[in-house]
């Protein structure tokens, strides 16, 4: 057995000791306040970035590119991973979490600009992103470097995923949809590991978001208005 796995099992034993009493209220049902859609990336610790250690609080869904889109029989629908808590547990807030330096956005950018090919499984996932990111690639400033292009497209992708949720008939109008970017590369102002609000219910203008939501005003920041 790989040492890395046995070390994880030991850490799980520590977790089990610490969490003995934290499942008492959620063993039979869950009513999470938020569904958080994050990118599958080893540097982005999904529950950890919210400071969450309480089972039943955040319903977490992860995939490369923090997508909310799923393709079924050539039709695009809201992913069941995201829709389940909205439909079945009364969750009324969805947060789409992008992150700086996103590998999925980078790979999609490469596919769109250089025709880079990936194995079929990855190609399928990127194929769900490509039609949403392609207009953003066309809008990029001429003088932006590669890293700058990717991080602008990270925001653009968050915007498109938020937009897809808002446009879906399967997501009730009273469900709030928020888009954020997690920064561990010193791209935004603030400290490493902070989340920056870039979109609230389709509004992307930072001043408008601050005016409407002064309680989060200090965390509103965008790299790119497009």
Short key terms for the protein model shown above:
226 residues; alpha/beta; Beta-carbonic Anhydrase, Chain A; 5-stranded mixed beta sheet; two-stranded antiparallel sheet; 7 helices
- Fraction in helix: 25-40%
Please give the CATH class.
Alpha Beta
Overall, the morphology is globular
The secondary-structure class comes to alpha/beta
Number of domains: 1
Give the SSE string: HEHEEEHEHHHEEH
Radius of gyration: 18 Å
CATH architecture: 3-Layer(aba) Sandwich
Question: Helical segment tally?
Answer: 7
Low-confidence runs of at least 5 consecutive residues: none
Largest sheet: 5 strands, mixed
Bin the strand percentage.
15-25%
**Could you tell me the mean pLDDT?**
96
- Write down the CATH topology: Beta-carbonic Anhydrase, Chain A
Describe this structure in words.
It is a single chain. The protein is α/β, with parallel strands linked by helices. The protein has one domain: 3-Layer(aba) Sandwich (Beta-carbonic Anhydrase, Chain A), CATH 3.40.1050.10. The protein is 40% helix and 19% strand. It contains 7 helices and 7 strands. It has helices at residues 3-18, 46-49, 80-88, 103-114, 120-139, 146-167, 206-212, and strands spanning 34-39, 58-63, 69-72, 75-78, 93-99, 176-183, 194-200. The model has no long low-confidence stretch (mean pLDDT 96).
């Amino acid at each position: 057995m790989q040492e890395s796995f046995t070390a994880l099992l030991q850490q799980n034993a520590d977790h089990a000791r610490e969490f003995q009493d934290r499942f008492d209220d959620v063993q039979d049902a869950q009513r999470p306040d938020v569904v958080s859609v994050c990118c599958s990336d080893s540097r982005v610790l999904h529950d950890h970035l919210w400071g969450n250690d309480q089972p039943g609080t955040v319903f977490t869904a992860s995939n490369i590119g923090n997508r909310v889109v799923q393709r079924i029989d050539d039709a695009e629908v809201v992913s069941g991973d995201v829709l389940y808590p909205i439909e079945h547990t009364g969750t009324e807030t969805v947060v789409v979490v992008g992150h700086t330096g996103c590998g999925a956005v980078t790979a999609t950018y490469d596919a769109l600009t250089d025709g880079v090919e990936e194995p079929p499984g990855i190609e399928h996932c990127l194929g769900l992103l490509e039609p949403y990111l392609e207009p953003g690639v066309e809008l990029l400033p001429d003088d932006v470097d590669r890293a700058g292009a990717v991080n602008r497209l990270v925001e653009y992708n968050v915007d498109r995923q938020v937009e897809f949720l808002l446009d879906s008939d399967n997501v009730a109008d009273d469900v709030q949809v928020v888009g954020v970017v997690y920064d561990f590369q010193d791209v935004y102002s603030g400290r490493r590991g902070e989340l920056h609000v870039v979109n609230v219910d389709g509004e992307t203008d930072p001043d408008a978001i601050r005016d409407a939501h002064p309680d989060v005003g200090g965390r509103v920041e965008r790299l790119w208005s497009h």
